[in-house]
Amino acid sequence: MAHAVVGSRKRALAKSLRRGMTRAETLLWRCLKSHYIGMQFRRQTPIGPYIADFCCHRARLIVELDGESHDFAEQQQSDAQRDRWFATQGYRVLRFTNDDVLKNLEGVVAAIVSAIPPPSLSLPHKGGGDTQN
To answer: CATH code for 22-115?
Structure first.
């Protein structure tokens, strides 16, 4: 799949978000970048009109961490619209609060691991048995 072109403004915003991560984002990022989960994640990744907190393109999984501002109805509607857009692109979105990460990092990581689909196994080709008698 070809990567979409990311404008310089969005790239600069993503870079700024990476520099100013919250404590919860930093803790989760340490787990994700260590490949403890077994998949490669990217942080503050531009995807279409949005910037995903953490994204594993291979597993088509996005992890979003929500602070207190996400408690308001208007922000929740915006989050739901964003999640629907990601779904149209084939991504599954997991949302956790910063508090979830700070108080139960192991549980959050376990939920992420369980959301990653198992690797697909390739089946042998039809008629691939021994041809010698």
So the answer is: 3.40.960.10
Tokens of 81: 């619209």
Domain boundaries in the chain? 22-115
Residue 124 pLDDT class (50, 70, 90 cuts): low
Q: Provide the 10 A C-beta neighbour count for residue 47.
A: 19
pLDDT tens-digit readout, 41-57: 999 989 999 999 999 99
Q: What angle do CA 65, 93, 8 make, to 5 degrees?
A: 70
Cβ neighbours of residue 107 closer than 8 Å, sequence gap 6 or more: 100
pTM to 2 decimal places: 0.75
Given a contact cutoff of 8 angstroms between Cβ atoms, the answer to whether 34 and 112 are in contact is: no
